[in-house]
């Protein structure tokens, strides 16, 4: 008998899960595959999830447990360090194989390597698989064998490669109770998802989110199908308008692996408008590019990729707490930015165009460090991604790879006139924007722009 323990992390799905499908090839009877999710908040370098992502994770684990049950696979829930828990679980359950899907951050790779050594030293088979990206970071290289730092050539290289079609969920092994009874007899408990304390309590700031989101694998597929059928054809000319409702809103499903990028890529093949299809797929490419950068530059979430920005005179929130609090609360006096920040707090999501506007306002007009904004997004976005979040913030700040030019500063007033000219988006989130109740702008846009450009020029040493 071969029993496989599948360690779930960012692949919380049954369908198109290479690691789970590989385990199924070795399975013959109920109980031959066991799933486990480990909430790890203590391994050095592993970034604890933010509050919004924890809320999503709770729902995703409940969905995963149901989907695996239909395949006859129980899901165990644990909390602690995988180094100790996985070998112990393998011993307790009689598993002789452990599978998981790879992660690509520096600390995550160290963890995976250590776990693999520990398991193999105990005579177990330990295998990892690719399940979260279109192509793994090291497989796409420049002509000189190095990493890409500019997106356009990276995207050209990626888009010329084949994307394997997605696969179905594994065939059921039998009734779930047949699998769980053996665990119970051996004294192994399944564990309760509620024990992870992922849900907010007092106050429950997410109490309306179940009416906004369906954080299940089925919900992800429904959202994907709806987008492809009803919105994707106009993606090329409508996605930049926050009030148009033309974006896919699939990022959290990809973040937690409830959808695979292959499923999304191939579904996009049905989009009739060629430019919309390409633009949408380009977003998947940017996601891969972000992980490509994080893999090759693991300090990216904490450090400027361009070292000269270490000398830029950004403030930390403690130096100007009132301004930073006003920004987080959507009380900056700039309606488009405030609409985005209020949408973020109310829903755990913000339109991508508005993310750039709010980030630019914080970093370039208010002069507060990008790391402060990145940390706020990390805590409040349901799709907070360990690669995309810091990469996007460094792009706006000008300190990252393929960054926006230092002189590009998003003017929130001009952005509103161009992308929300009828105030449709703003009226939803800032209904008082044209009343006396609305705050005055925190900063003079023209003066703060001039100051930022002077600071950037000093950084470059060009005297301008």
UniProtKB/TrEMBL annotation:
Keywords: Chromophore, FAD, Flavoprotein, Lyase. Binds 1 FAD per subunit. Its cofactor is FAD. PROSITE patterns: PHR_CRY_ALPHA_BETA (PS51645). The record marks 314, 370, 393 as: Electron transfer via tryptophanyl radical. The keyword Flavoprotein applies. InterPro entries: Crypto/Photolyase_FAD-like_sf, Crypto/Photolyase_N_sf, Cryptochr/Photolyase_FAD-bd, Cryptochrome/DNA_photolyase_1, DNA_photolyase_N, Rossmann-like_a/b/a_fold. The keyword Flavoprotein applies. One of its GO terms (molecular function) is DNA binding. One of its GO terms (biological process) is response to light stimulus. FAD binds at residues 235, 247-251, 280, 383-385. Residues 2-134 form the Photolyase/cryptochrome alpha/beta domain. Belongs to the DNA photolyase family. This is Deoxyribodipyrimidine photo-lyase. It comes from Nesterenkonia sphaerica.
